[in-house]
Task: inverse folding
């Protein structure tokens, strides 16, 4: 029990004692933090009139060491003075309670940054790790081990990473003068704790901190620590025993040499790690580290021999336990290595003659059973309905066992399940049969009877009898997840599933919505509803449904999938990719995760690489896993049409049309196909605009930067401006997008005067669009006089440095313009204004714009490394999925071109090409930068001695001009 005089007494008594003891020196303002080691208070240093942080360590920590000895150790830590360490300014005892004072650092912790953005760009993560390693190396040379290196103790401020809380460190040699009591108390945080520290080893050295820092770097790269678990003890055990999971399996852009450096730093034995933090830093700064990554591989680090022995023993015991029950069957199945024993194909069930229920009952019961199997690791449900022809879908009785076996084998399923429903008065009996795909044999049969009102409950009861055949020794109850569900909720879910299968997301969403209204814990309905909402660009509703799903227990692969999906909807591309790749690592055959990965690349953008190619690869993998999935077709068709590749687009188009999807994507593809095949003149553009202007503007966006097909984009945009005369917010948005695309195409072709005319005409007609002169003047010297006129008018209207200008994006553009003209002080004042506005809760845009301007200010004073870090942060910021393809700023073209220019100037030509290749994605905000990005890529290719690539990029620049002449535009 804690008494008022106990060391480490919590608030409010702790606050009272601190306030009394420190009166005259510090004024305690308020509590600002409560972590695992200490409570933190914001205070004012009354002598120096500065803001400081006062920390009061928790009672349990102080009790282990004793307050006097604890305070003595903290006093000694004041000798640590390094730019990468938050210094201890003062320390002492307040009525027996130790405290210490540090500068208040204005910024966020790495923990907060990771929670906000997910995984960091590789270079940003490396830079933070290197800066922390330098601080650790300094401390180790002075005899201190930190013992609690973790994201919460790393502060990010003004482009610099700082390590805090050396106040709890303990001198390992002579630093403390006398040794503290050997209590065996393990200071630290389990997620980042070295094996020797977890064992309460008191003879720690700097290599323990190196291990912890490597754990932090791991989390910066993939978004989660290397080892997690339900309890502290289980996490510590994993640090001892488990191999480190591969970074590149989750994030294939991590260079191989970086993964090797992290793995060495996390070796189980200190002797196998880097000798010092300096050595780890040097390894991370090795120029060869950032060479282009090798092809993705699934790597497993070998476990220690003792672990292997236990694993073999466990496996042997498991075999002995099940050999008599299923030995022969399992042995036979394993003879066909192409089949997966965990994949079960489930076909719709037959309704026997005289069945009195709904005609879809057989499909519905099979759907419930499939979902239940899919939620029972390691089983995977493969929906047989998707593979059936129209005849079998209409009457499942026409499906022969031979054909069912053939279809199951094509999806590598080792078993398939059929069923039959028989009515008997007010009851229904469900008969199930499990077949072996390898041979012509029935593995098991079972049945269950119950009231006909909810026949899916009988189906689940029956399938429980098959589980011992599917999972030897299983005691699972598949009905447990469903038996307490409200029948009305299940009925709505099944209606949603039926519509979802048939690519009718609007109808499906209506039913999923009702299912969740009836049962707010229905996770699978919420997850499917989120997918249906996302397909209809209803991001807010999709996010709300994902929150419902995440609040319920999910299997690990679905947990990562759902988190990746949520990150995608929030515009966190890197985090989305990391979670989805983790789901794929857990289940490489998870088609829905591959599809969502393709969606991420299609709608957001990576730091480096061609989004179209990355998206196409993900969808191709999904299509190989499930050739019947219509969701794998739309974006690959769009990509092939943009490339002018009708030959490979046609087979996909035939399949997409056969699925009878919603009308809008069909209309877009119909116009796109006609424009590619028959040319611009074959289409009656004004009629198309009057029929559906939303379709036409999307065609324009898709072809605005298409190689050799920009005429399709020009025709679509021109038709919108000429024929879309309706008055509404949506019409205003379409017209602005059309003008944005047309003027950007002229800039890409080297015709800035024509672009200026397009903007000027639009401003005179619609009174908007003038900001484009500000945004693009830094690209175009001839636009500078017009931009200066606008800036002078804004200065007159909004005061010095445009301080009262309410539009953040225009304010940012003015800041860039001022910097372009050498007015550094004005640019700095604008950055400060944006940063202050960015402190508001919902001011993400202002924070990103302030960081962008900070990067350019750093570059102006010669700090290219600092500028690069800030630019990477900007490019990894959240970006709304719905806005990214249309917006003039959101794709961050200016920052991307500047980063690529920095890399190319430094001789990192391959990375420069990778960063600039993203400009090939169909984003209207990229188009104005396309010409300059191609010129940069040509220069980089020439520096690499790659004459073929150089010629390719130069030919594309020439083609921009030649198409201008061909279209007469």
Result:
């Amino acid at each position: 029990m804690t008494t008022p005089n106990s060391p480490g007494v919590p608030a409010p008594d702790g606050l009272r004692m601190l306030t009394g003891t420190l009166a005259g020196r510090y004024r305690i303002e308020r509590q600002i933090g409560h972590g695992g080691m200490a409570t933190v208070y914001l205070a004012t240093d009354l002598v120096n009139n500065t803001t400081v942080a006062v920390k009061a360590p928790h009672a349990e920590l102080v009790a282990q060491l004793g307050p006097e000895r604890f305070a003595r150790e903290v006093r000694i830590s004041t000798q640590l003075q390094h730019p990468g360490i938050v210094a201890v300014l003062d320390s002492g005892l307040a009525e027996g309670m130790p405290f210490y004072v540090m500068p208040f650092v204005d910024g966020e912790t790495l923990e907060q940054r990771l929670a906000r953005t997910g995984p960091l760009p590789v270079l940003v993560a490396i830079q933070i790790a290197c800066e922390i390693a330098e601080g650790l190396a300094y401390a180790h040379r002075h005899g201190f081990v930190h013992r609690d290196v973790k994201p919460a103790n790393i502060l990010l401020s003004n482009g610099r990473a700082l390590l805090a809380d050396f106040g709890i460190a303990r001198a390992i040699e002579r630093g403390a003068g006398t040794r503290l009591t050997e209590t065996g108390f393990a200071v630290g945080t389990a997620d980042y704790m070295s094996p020797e520290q977890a064992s309460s080893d008191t003879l720690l050295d700097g290599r323990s901190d190196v291990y912890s820092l490597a754990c932090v770097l791991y989390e910066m790269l993939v978004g989660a620590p290397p080892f997690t678990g339900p309890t502290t003890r289980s996490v510590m055990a994993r640090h001892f025993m488990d191999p480190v999971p591969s970074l590149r399996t989750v994030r294939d852009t991590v260079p191989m040499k970086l993964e090797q450096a992290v793995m060495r730093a996390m070796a189980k034995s200190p002797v196998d790690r880097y000798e010092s933090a300096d050595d780890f830093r040097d390894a991370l700064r090795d120029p060869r580290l950032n060479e282009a990554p090798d092809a993705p591989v699934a790597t497993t680090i070998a476990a220690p021999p003792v672990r292997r022995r236990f694993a073999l023993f466990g496996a042997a015991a498991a075999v002995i336990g099940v050999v008599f029950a299923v030995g022969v069957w399992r042995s036979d199945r394993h003879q066909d290595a192409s089949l997966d024993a965990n994949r079960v194909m489930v076909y719709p069930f037959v309704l026997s003659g005289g069945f009195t229920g709904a005609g879809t009952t057989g499909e519905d019961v099979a759907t419930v059973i499939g979902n239940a199997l899919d939620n029972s690791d390691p089983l995977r449900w493969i929906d047989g309905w998707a593979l059936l022809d129209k005849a079998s879908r209409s009457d499942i009785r026409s499906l022969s066992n031979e054909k069912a076996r053939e279809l199951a084998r094509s999806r590598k399923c080792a078993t398939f399940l059929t069923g039959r429903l028989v009515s008997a008065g007010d009851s229904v009996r469900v008969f199930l049969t499990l077949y072996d795909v390898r041979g012509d044999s029935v593995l098991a049969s079972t049945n269950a009877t119950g009231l006909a009102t909810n026949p899916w409950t009988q189906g689940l009861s029956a399938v429980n009898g098959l589980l011992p055949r599917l999972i030897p020794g299983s005691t699972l109850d598949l009905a447990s997840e469903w038996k307490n569900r409200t029948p009305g909720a299940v009925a709505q879910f099944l209606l949603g599933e039926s519509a979802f299968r048939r690519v009718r997301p609007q109808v499906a969403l209506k039913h999923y919505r009702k299912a969740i209204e009836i049962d707010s814990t229905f996770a699978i309905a919420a997850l499917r509803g989120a997918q249906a909402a996302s397909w209809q660009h209803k991001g807010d509703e999709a996010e709300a449904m994902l929150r419902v799903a995440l609040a319920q227990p999910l299997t690990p692969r679905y947990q990562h999938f759902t988190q990746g999906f949520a990150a995608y909807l929030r515009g966190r591309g890197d985090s989305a990719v990391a979670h989805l790749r983790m789901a794929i690592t857990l289940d490489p055959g998870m088609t829905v995760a591959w599809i969502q990965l393709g969606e991420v690349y299609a709608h957001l953008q990576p730091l480096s690489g061609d989004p179209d190619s990355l998206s196409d690869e993900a969808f191709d993998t999904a299509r190989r896993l499930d050739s019947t999935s219509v969701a794998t077709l739309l974006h690959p068709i769009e990509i092939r049409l943009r490339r002018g590749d009708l030959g490979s687009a046609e087979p996909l188009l035939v399949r997409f049309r056969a699925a009878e999807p919603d009308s809008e994507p069909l209309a877009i593809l119909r116009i796109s196909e006609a424009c590619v095949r028959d040319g611009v003149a074959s289409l009656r553009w004004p009629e198309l605009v009057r029929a559906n202007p939303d379709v036409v503007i999307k065609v324009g966006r898709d072809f605005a930067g298409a190689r050799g097909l920009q005429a399709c984009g020009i025709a679509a945009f021109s038709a919108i401006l000429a024929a879309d005369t309706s008055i509404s917010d949506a019409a205003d948005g379409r017209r602005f997008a059309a003008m944005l695309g047309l003027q950007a195409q002229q800039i890409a072709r080297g015709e800035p005067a024509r672009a200026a005319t397009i903007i000027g005409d639009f401003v005179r007609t619609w009174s908007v669009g003038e900001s484009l002169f500000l945004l693009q003047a830094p690209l175009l010297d001839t636009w500078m006089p017009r931009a200066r006129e606008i800036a002078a008018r804004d200065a007159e209207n909004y005061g010095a440095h445009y301080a009262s200008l309410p539009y953040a994006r225009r304010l940012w553009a003015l800041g860039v313009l001022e910097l372009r003209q050498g007015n550094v002080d004005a640019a700095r004042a604008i950055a400060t204004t944006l940063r202050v506005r960015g402190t508001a809760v919902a001011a993400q845009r202002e924070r990103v714009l302030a960081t962008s301007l900070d990067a350019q200010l750093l570059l102006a004073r010669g700090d290219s490394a600092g500028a690069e870090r800030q630019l990477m942060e900007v490019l990894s910021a959240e970006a709304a999925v719905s806005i990214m393809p249309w917006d003039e700023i959101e794709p961050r073209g200016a920052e991307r071109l500047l980063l690529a220019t920095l890399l190319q100037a430094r001789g990192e030509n391959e990375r420069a090409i990778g960063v600039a290749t993203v400009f090939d994605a169909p984003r209207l905000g990229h188009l104005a930068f396309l010409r300059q990005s191609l010129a940069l890529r040509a220069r980089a290719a020439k520096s690499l001695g790659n004459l073929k690539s150089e010629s390719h990029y130069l030919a594309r620049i020439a083609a921009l001009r030649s198409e201008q002449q061909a279209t007469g535009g």
Summary: The chain has 44 helices and 16 strands.
